[in-house]
Amino acid sequence: MTLSALLKERAVSTPKKTCIRFGNRRLSYSEIDSIVSLVSGGLNTLGLKAEERAAILIENSPEYIISYFAILRAGGIAVPVNTFLTPVEISYILKDSGARILIYDSRFISQVNEIKGSMPDLEAVSFDDIPQRLSESHDDNSEKTAVLLYTSGTTGFPKGVMLTHGNLISNAGACMKVMHLSGRDRILLFLPLFHSFSFTVCVILPIYAGANIVLLRSVKPFSGVIKSIFRDRITFFVAIPAVYNILSKKRIPLFLKYILKLLINIKVCVSGAAALPEDTLKAFEDRFKLPLIEGYGLTEAAPVVSVNPPDGIRKPSSVGPPLPGIDVKVIGEDGESLPAGNIGELLVRGPNVMKGYFNNSEETETVLRDGWLYTGDMAKIDEDGYIYIVDRKKDLIVASGMNIYPGEIENVIIKHPSVEESAMVGIPCRNGEEVPVLFIKERNDAMLDEKEIRGYMEGKIAPFKKPRRIIFVDDFPRTATGKIKKADLKKYNI
Predict the structure, then answer these.
(1) Has residue 327 been placed in a domain?
(2) Which of 147, 178, 350, 356 registers the highest number of CB atoms within 10 A of its CB?
(3) Nearest residue to 268 via CA among 303, 314, 304, 200
(4) What is the DSSP string of 350-414?
(5) Residue 33 to residue 11: CA distance in whole angstroms
């Protein structure tokens, strides 16, 4: 099955059921499917042919989801563009992908005009100006590439991850088996639609299940998120760690806590896109008495690899066992599989693993070998098959010949009551060595100094793992989904 066929099937089986609620707009599955068919014909009229790429530069809205499915139905490949990028960064993605068409909304007119100056052959069209003409579906092969998702580029130029229809649908199906999503559920979507985590879990998964997507423009203002939870009787809440961190600390009057308990319909909360600190998980669950489950994934795996089961054993600090149909293992430096409890590079195999990087066979051959995806994440797997992410392999710091995994240190420091966030990186110095540097963001009104942090580390962190420098910052450079951009920290002049 293809994604277009999945939507069509849902439109036939539950035509009047609401697919998307966006403010006061309610669009049924049959309405969404009909508009997709009209827009896909319009894209063909504009010259989009099979296998050609069409990019999307649109804020969270029904038009984004319609554009995505219309591109697929027209036989093309969707290229979601991070809306927080500069025109120069967007141009790189458009040129690298060979995008034939760019669909945008009014917010991005100035950026589009700047981009067109360097790309005169690009057909840039606002969603409202796409001609509407009915067309037949062209995407009839689940092994065809459906989407090119560009990685954040924290280690160099962004790479286009080729995910097939089969990759995405298999991942949604496996998620549904674990999450038990059904047509009665209502899922809140406020994360950026261009992100692989939000689109698979908050769009493809609910369409697969026949559920209702409650779509918000963004997480801001946060009062809109809270209002929607009650107004729309949300049952499935998906967010990133930063959101759960805010919720776990936000002051709530006693009477409101009682009302929350009575009125909230949420069955489960899911955290993804970045590591969830154990303290945040505990504080959130203690406050709201709701299960918060953490998963793990990467764009190259469409993206979900594992999740702590909401109705099974949930292990703190673990990202759970792999989804059904997905195999994982940990290997050492020699490439041999390691026994339970040993740290090595995590490998993933399954129907969700990408086709490869677009026009980049060298990088593809580096990460796809013998059917396994080399994730670049350092992890261990316990005897029950639960995965524990230790750190990024590329974040590994080598100081005086010793391997230091920043995640270990960060997990200790975050437990200090005055620390809001921390990040440790290795900054190269003149002698070729890496200097471990710890960056700390304090909680509001905290009065921390280096002496206190070093005292806190005593007995908790081995001497060779301790940072040589500690730097306090007001905030961190971040990606669109709130991840700390460690590559930017490595540029810090020490």
Answers:
(1) yes
(2) 147
(3) 314
(4) STTS--EETT-HHHHHHHEETTEEEEEEEEEE-TT--EEEEEEGGG-EEETTEEE-HHHHHHHHT
(5) 6
Q: Which helix (H) or strand (E) holds 77?
A: strand 77-80
Rounded distance between C-alpha atoms, residue 121 and residue 130, angstroms: 17
Do 404 and 378 fall into the same domain? no
How confident is residue 443, by pLDDT bands cut at 50, 70 and 90? Answer: confident
C-beta separation of 32 from 210 below 8 A: no
Q: Are 184 and 209 in contact, with CB atoms under 8 Å apart?
A: no
Q: How far apart are CA 332 and CA 342, in angstroms?
A: 9
| Residues 125 and 69 reside in one and the same domain | yes
Tokens of 404: 């230091």
Yes or no: say if 392 and 376 are a contact pair by the CB < 8 Å rule: yes
Whether the CB-CB separation of 181 and 204 falls below 8 Å is answered with no
Number of residues in the chain: 494
Would you state the structure tokens that stand for residue 438, as one six-digit string?
Answer: 């710890």
Closest CA relative to residue 197, chosen from 154, 152, 135, 156: 152
The model's pLDDT over 142-179, given as tens digits with 9 standing for 90+, comes to 899 999 999 854 445 789 999 999 999 999 999 999 99
Domain count, the chain: 3
CATH number, residue 417: 3.30.300.30
Same domain, 256 and 378: yes
Which tokens sit at 285? 């669950």
Q: Residue 104: give its domain's CATH number.
A: 3.40.50.980
Considering the domain architecture, whether residues 412 and 334 belong to the same structural domain is answered as no
**C-alpha to C-alpha distance for 25 and 8, rounded to whole angstroms:** 21
pLDDT category at 33 given cuts 50, 70, 90 is: very high
- In whole angstroms, give the CA distance from residue 355 to residue 428: 35
For residues 481 and 490, the answer to whether their CB atoms sit within 8 Å is: no
State which amino acid sits at residue 399.
Answer: A
Alpha carbons 150 and 82: distance in angstroms, whole number: 9
269-291 pLDDT, tens digit per residue, is 999 877 787 888 888 888 888 88
